[in-house]
Design goal:
Layout (H helix, E strand, L loop, with lengths): L1 H30 L2 H8 L4 E3 L3 E7 L5 E9 L5 E8 L4 E2 L5 E3 L4 E8 L6 E11 L6 E10 L27
Parallel strand pairs: 2-9
Antiparallel strand pairs: 1-3, 3-7, 4-6, 4-8, 5-7, 8-9
């Protein structure tokens, strides 16, 4: 009897794991990511498969563009009416934009970090005409590293013909 119940438990655990894997794969295939599938189940109709864009390393005053793909999974057109960011260094000029049902659009965001160095993470909030999902949060992040200047080498001071100017390595 004990052996029969342990088989039943193991079978249930295996089937539950297979069901979770199938759900994960279906959400990833259909919505672009598992997270987008969960957001759809929660009622969101404008989905962004990758709401965080890591732009890597910036030099001071460098400007980079990134692209977010917005997908309308609803049955009616959705309008992105405006945006607001946590920093004036994050801008978009593609608004307002209307996304027809079942369509997607590319939203280009320009990033110009205002800090001289260090890491940054800024949020861009998009405003929609939907009652249930009136905002969409996007994040851009990166790191600003000061440009290193190469020291100029004065060849005349490093003459190998004068042994008095040769520096011996220390041990």
């Amino acid at each position: 009897m004990k052996e029969k119940s342990s088989r039943w438990i193991m079978g249930t655990i295996v089937m539950a794991n297979i069901s979770m894997l199938v759900t994960y794969l279906a959400f990833t295939f259909h919505f672009g990511s598992f997270g987008s599938g969960i957001r759809y189940l929660n009622g969101d109709r404008v989905l962004v498969s990758h709401p965080v864009s890591d732009l890597g390393v910036f030099e001071p005053k460098q400007i980079k563009n990134t692209r977010f793909v917005l997908v309308n999974r609803g049955s009616k057109a959705i309008q992105i009416v405006g945006s607001r960011s946590t920093c004036s260094c994050v801008m978009t000029s593609d608004l307002p934009v209307t996304i027809p049902p079942g369509s997607k659009t590319n939203l280009v965001v320009k990033v110009h970090p205002g800090q001289p160095e260090g890491s940054f993470s800024e949020r861009l909030t998009l405003y929609t005409d939907l009652n249930r999902q009136n905002t969409i949060d996007l994040t851009v992040e990166g790191i600003v590293i000061p440009k290193l200047e190469k020291p100029s080498v004065d060849q005349s001071s490093h003459s190998q013909s004068d042994p008095s100017k040769v520096v011996e390595p220390t041990q």
